[in-house]
Design goal:
Distance between the termini: 72 Å
Strand content: 15-25%
Shape: elongated
Order of helices and strands: HEEEHEHEHEEE
Largest sheet: 3 strands, antiparallel
Helix content: 40-55%
Radius of gyration: 26 Å
Number of strands: 8
Amino acid sequence: ERLEFLTGQRADLEASKAQLEEIILDIDGRTRDRFMATFDAVKVAFDELFKRIFDGGTTQLSLTDPENLLETGIALKVQPPGKGAQDISLLSGGERALTALSFMLALLRVHPSPFVVLDEVDAPLDQSNVGRFAQLLREFTDRTQFIVITHNNGTMQAADVLYGVTQQQQGASKRVAVGLVADNDGADAATSNWATDNGATC
């Protein structure tokens, strides 16, 4: 009786194991399919956004281990206009920032995120590229809310709301916020409702 009981238990375990293996194979297959579909869509979007930001050039996204899609990395090479194809790590600071921005926006175009925080990503950009940066972010604000930490005047001028900290008196910091709205002529003007109390959320 003990042998029969244990034999039955073993058969149940083997059947459960086989069922779990089938489920894992199915999940892995679906994951590979979704990954490749997303990868192909991001590749197209990245190429389009890169060419728009740089006024030309080419991009190349490839898999570091195509035979193992569940653990592969992604290799990114770009060719700005007038330069040779190279890894992103070999680009200048401004080119690297714009390339990373175009890749991030490509991801957001394929799978939008409701909320994104960018910390000093515009620091290496000159004023003309800051304008492009702000314009691109504006195009994605219908589906994504951006919080941009910056000291760049061009980026701040493109924002809807500014939050900051000021020190009007020595040793006393105040958090402030101001909304930017368009006036009747279409120009940006600051609203008069400043939140300057220490309990303001910034």
